[in-house]
Amino acid sequence: MAERNRDVLGRLADLSGEAVQRLADAPGADRALQALKVLGDKVDELQRRTRGFEELERRLSALEKQMDAMAKPNPPRTTGSAGAPTKPRGSGPKKP
Q1: Is the pTM of this model over 0.85?
Q2: What percent of the chain has pLDDT over 70?
Q3: What is the largest CA-CA distance in the chain?
Q4: Is residue 23 within 8 Å of residue 29, measured between CB atoms?
Q5: What are the phi and psi torsion angles at 76 (to 5°)?
Q6: Alpha-carbon distance 63 to 57, whole Å?
Q7: How many other CB atoms sit within 10 Å of the CB of residue 37?
Q8: What is the pLDDT of residue 94?
Q9: pLDDT digits 0-9 by tens, 18-50
Q10: Residue ranges of domains in the chain
Q11: How would DSSP label each residue in 3-67?
């Protein structure tokens, strides 16, 4: 069985080699190969540019959380004991 698999794989390799050779000899194949190379270069460049998006998304999420925290109203602070009335300003004893 292993011998049979090797034979099939060998035949497949020979056929694929022949197919590549035929494509290389076809008219216009040079232009097509150049176009594919340029496409590969552009895809590589695009990958390099988009690598930083994950870091930017993480930073943006952190900033959004900070903005949400700043937008929430702060609870009123109490100074002194709860329920004790506070004196309004200017209601103390007047100077003559």
Answers
A1: no
A2: 71
A3: 118
A4: yes
A5: -65, 140
A6: 10
A7: 10
A8: 62
A9: 887 887 778 887 888 889 899 999 999 998 888
A10: 28-71
A11: HHHHHHHHHHHHHHHHHHHHHHHSTTHHHHHHHHHHHHHHHHHHHHHHTTHHHHHHHHHHHHHHH
